[in-house]
Amino acid sequence: MATIQLLLVDDEERFLNTTKILLEKRGIVTFTATNGADALKTMNEHRIDVVILDVKMPGIDGLEVLRKTKQKHPLVEVIMLTGHATVESAVEGLKLGAFDYVKKPCDISDLIPKVNEAYDKKHAMEEKIRKALIDKIIRHPMAVFEKEN
Amino acid sequence: MILTRGLAGPSITLMLVCGVLVYYFAAYSREQVETKLVRIASDHRQLVDQFLEERLSDLQFAAFFYSIAEISDPKRLTELFRRLLSRSRAFFDLGVFDEKGNHLAYAGPFDLAGKNYAETEWFKAVEREGRYISDIFLGYRNIPHFIIAIRRDEGDRTWYLRATVDTLFFNDLVENIRVGKSGEAYLVNRKGILQTRRRSGGRLMETDSDYGFYRINKDRVASFFTGKYSDHRYLYAVESLKQTGWDLVVRQEVSDAFAPLTRAVLVAVFVIAAGGAVVVIMAYILASGLANRLTLADIEKQQMKTQLIMAGKFAEIGEMSTGLAHEINNPLQVMKAERMLIQELISDVEKNNPSIDPDNMGLIKDSVEQIDIQIERCSRITQGLLNFARKTEAVMKPVTMQEFLPEMVRMIEQKALLENVRIIQKIESELPPLMSDPNQLQQVFLNLLNNAIHALRGKDSAEIRINASHEDAFIEVSIADNGCGISPENMERIFLPFFTTKPPGQGTGLGLSTVYGIVKGLGGEITATSELNAGSVFNLHLPLESVGKEENTD
Lengths: 149, 554
What we know:
The structure holds two protein chains of two kinds. By secondary structure, chain A is α/β, with parallel strands linked by helices.
């Protein structure tokens, strides 16, 4: 099983660094971004499995980042991190396809299981897609060329 | 104030009009009464005068036709007397006297001839004046009568004719005058001696004690005078007789004379007073009704204003709380991550250096533990703030109050028992289920019940009454205690975060603010009323279908 590649987005740099250390210790490859633009850029450059996303950020808002992520990388699972456990933003996030949300302040130990779950979900989804593709190719070998278009 | 101002103008005008009317009416009536008395006096004076005049003429006429020789004849005199009697039954007897006062002849029931009257007062008067009418006297016969005497100059001789006139005539004429209940008439001579009987007391020949009073106004033909006679005040009309100088007096008790007037004035005053009273009462009722309504409207307005201000304040504080919570949660998150890192670093250090001082390591671990505890504490506070600002998620489920409330009571029963608090539940059995968040409701009721128990600490016959009823699309729950109550100054602030009356360290002041936030979040209302040292009531107004429900099921 491949290692989880995680992107942590928050405007608190110190939090990013410390959490990165903690996550890497647990074998999770961690990228960080202090704003939405950087986050989206990182997702384009690297294979990202799970994003931990602060809802409230300067620049592009967390929800906006979520929306764009889901557009460009529908399989990437997003865990929302919210400073005020607002029903509104949490519900909004879930509606936009977030995997879950976590209230600040949270323990890393609480975060890890959710990350694993999210990764599992993504992994399962990718498996399904692969299987579907294989099925398709087996039934219609010409489809391989279609896909490449 | 409205009352006084509104009533003063009209009522003063009304009173003035009525007063003037009554005054003129009274003056007019008084004049009427007085005129009536004067007329009676004047009419009767004329009658009496006429009577005296006639009797005098009778005698003069008789004397003119006879010579002394003829008239001294008893037969002739008796004849004359009979003829005079036919003119008037008032004649009693008739006598002839010579110039020396010797009684020459007499016709009448008594035998009086032969006596000499030269020294009597009447003889002297008639000798001097030529004619004379005496005052009434009793004389030999002890019957009230008076004398009419005239002088006849026949050539060189002078003789006198004298008649005695029965006063019964006067008594009948004068005494029969009746005016009202007490009105009467009588005659008095120049000395104030009664010449006729007076009905209200005063026999013939007695002196009228009031004489002095009404004689003062004598120069007027008819005069009025109210004198004091025993307990009664009288109205007098006095007319002087031409022939004798007597006075005909008509008098009536003032109270009697003005009785109809007094009655009329009393009725008028009563009607005015009663009317005025009715007007005043009606005005009072109307005005006080109006004033009450105004006061109520004022109070309502004040309450509305207070509620609006409170709502605005709460919204502001809610906004601030959310911001504050967020701003604190972020650093808390950083601290938490740091703490985690420290913990892991310590483990690593311990693993790599087994020789490290275990005591110090223990202290460091304990310190890190403490940081975690304090972060948790801060986190709870920010959570409380967020609760007030209604930023927590509600999980809606049907809740039946008739099961839910007793369950809440069971949870605090033990504590209540310890504090000697009786809990009385009055919950309607047919309450419809309510779509709400049972966890949040539990937080609300436990908070309110705990507060109630706290307010009842050390109180005798302490009790909490829980009432639940159903009204339209709402469930009404009230929790009332008879505890220490809340002062009016504190009342405004009880739902604000961090407001507490407990000593520092014993309460965060987030209890009621959380309750408020939750109830608002569930689409309900919470209000409180309280009286110091009498107790407090918290009223919850919970919708059957919560507004928050929609947000969650989408």
